[in-house]
Amino acid sequence: IASFMKPAREVGGDLYQFISTSKDKLSIMIADVSGKGIPAALFMVRVVTEFKIRAGKYSSPKKVLSEVNNQLLKESKTGLFVTVSYCLVDIKSMEVFLSDAGHLPVLFYDAKSNEVKEIRPEKGMPIGLLPNIEFNDELINLSKGDVLLFYTDGVTEARDTKAQEFGLDRLKDTLKTYHHQTAPLILDGIKSELKNFSKKAPQHDDITLIVLKVV
User: What is the pLDDT of residues 62-72, one digit of tens each?
Assistant: First the structure.
């Protein structure tokens, strides 16, 4: 597993977290908080805390998202919301249970088919908007050589000097190009492609990437 975050100039809204819930289980959370500056930063702290509390308590990602959502609505009156992709990885069985709260689709390089697929469970409303939202879990069975890529919109919406966006298709192509590498080298490959694409164009949003590869 490998991760990377590059904030934009002001205090940004991206965050990610790895939580070891047991010897064989790991939770991965990547999120993008609406808004910038100090209010967003304080809201981020609240989000991280709530996920830490509930990750070890519930084995279902959709239950974690639901509980975090309701708790944040009770405590926070800021009007901020957060998109989240959250999963539980069972290292023994190589099963991933993924739930989504309005975030971008997770990219899954399937070594068997040599294809990059978009994984996005249904009912993905952002957290912090409405109480008692229902979420769904999606099961992904991993095999040797498979890769999962989590990211925020600072990646797909990165622009070049002509204001063209990097885009999801280019990110999928990049993952397919570097899939045979280790997780840190896949990450380096994506960062390199982003840098070559953007050239000297300013970075407008936080960039966050997480790569999980089965070896």
Answer: 999 999 999 99
